[in-house]
Amino acid sequence: MTAGRIDLERRAFAAVPASARAARQFVGDVLRRRSADQALISDYQLVVSELASNVIEHGDGSEMVVVVDSADPQWWAVEVSDGPLVAPFELTPDTWKVADPREFSGRGLGIVRELMDDIVIGVVGGHVSVRCRRHRRPPHLQEALT
Amino acid sequence: MTGSDQNDSMNVVLDAHGVLVVHGDIDIAGGPVLEAAIEALAADQPVVIDLADVFFIDSSGLRRLLGASRRARLHGAEVTLRNVGAEVARLLQITATTDQFTIESTRASS
Questions:
Q1: Interface mutation target, options B57, B58, B87, chain A, most CBs of A under 10 Å
Q2: DSSP string covering A3-29
Q3: What pLDDT is recorded for position A138?
Q4: Contact: A21, B62; criterion CB under 8 Å
Q5: Distance (Å, rounded) from C-alpha A34 to C-alpha A32?
Q6: Which chain B residues touch A47 with a CB distance below 8 Å?
Q7: What pLDDT does A20 receive?
Q8: Contacts of B32 (CB under 8 A, 6+ apart)
Q9: Interface of B with A (CB under 8 A)
């Protein structure tokens, strides 16, 4: 169950253009509280803006849900859904992959691909959900930790 | 003639020198405002866009800038970006679109 977890924050937004900014603000506030550095926050805000714009343009117009997950000390993860999240936001090592370019195209999603390490696209109950994550430390420091 | 277009999160002002001065985020909400301001200009005139007060842009905003660049080139003109900040420069770099514009000047991040 994810309810009550303090390392997982989620917020619903109306699927309207003004919500892209609100979603960026939400993600920025969460990551700032969790001591992420500004460069990383800026990248996540860009990623969430791209995903939110996709929902606003192509979703069913009802709702958009944004989740920030900091449960794993190695990663920051975000998820943007075009409706209520019907599946728990579970992160397991075998969940992640680099999404197939054939299902993940366009300039906006190309930006997400460029900035994130892993991207997963799921369709649950007719709702599309994109999860992505990036390692908290830059590559040259990751190796030093292992 | 000067004028302005705006929504809640951004606005565009055409200053006395014919420069489009943008204030705010160029995203899915602000992009159409910028696009309308660009399209109100004569198509065969160079377009100068001042981004000194732009601290966020995404692909929705970039699409409008690229549209302006294509339109200008079709008419033998070009789009010049002035006071480009790190956020805009980063997006241009990620998307390999820097060469679609003349970058007149840059500014330090806030």
A1: B58
A2: TT-TTEEEEEEESSTHHHHHHHHHHHH
A3: 66
A4: no
A5: 5
A6: none
A7: 96
A8: B64
A9: 8-9, 25, 27-29, 56, 58-60, 62-63, 87, 90-91, 94-95
Query: How far apart are alpha carbons A4 and A10 in whole angstroms?
Result: 11
Label the pairing between strands B79-82 and B47-53. parallel
The partner residue sitting opposite B28, judged by closest CB among A17, A106, A115, is A17
By the 8 A CB rule, do B10 and B20 touch? no
Identify which has the larger pLDDT, B11 or A142: B11
Chain B contact for A15, CB < 8 A?
A: no
Neighbours of B81 (CB within 10 A): 24
- Count interface pairs A-B at CB distance under 8 A: 53
* Mode of pairing for the β-strands spanning B47-53 and A63-69: unpaired
Question: How close B17 comes to chain A (CA, Å)?
Answer: 31
From chain A, pick out residues whose CB is under 8 angstroms from the CB of B9: 18, 21
Look over chain A and give the mean of its residue pLDDT values, rounded to a whole number: 81
What ipTM does the predicted assembly reach?
0.90
Return the amino acid letter for B49. I
pTM of the model: 0.87
**pLDDT, position A120:** 84
| Residue partners of A64: CB distance under 8 A and separation at least 6 | A12, A13, A14, A15, A19, A23, A52, A55, A56, A80, A81, A82, A83
Q: Show the tokens assigned to A100.
A: 């197939």
Place of tokens 């920051």: A76
The pLDDT tens digits of the residues spanning B20-58 come to 999 999 999 999 999 999 999 988 899 999 999 999 999
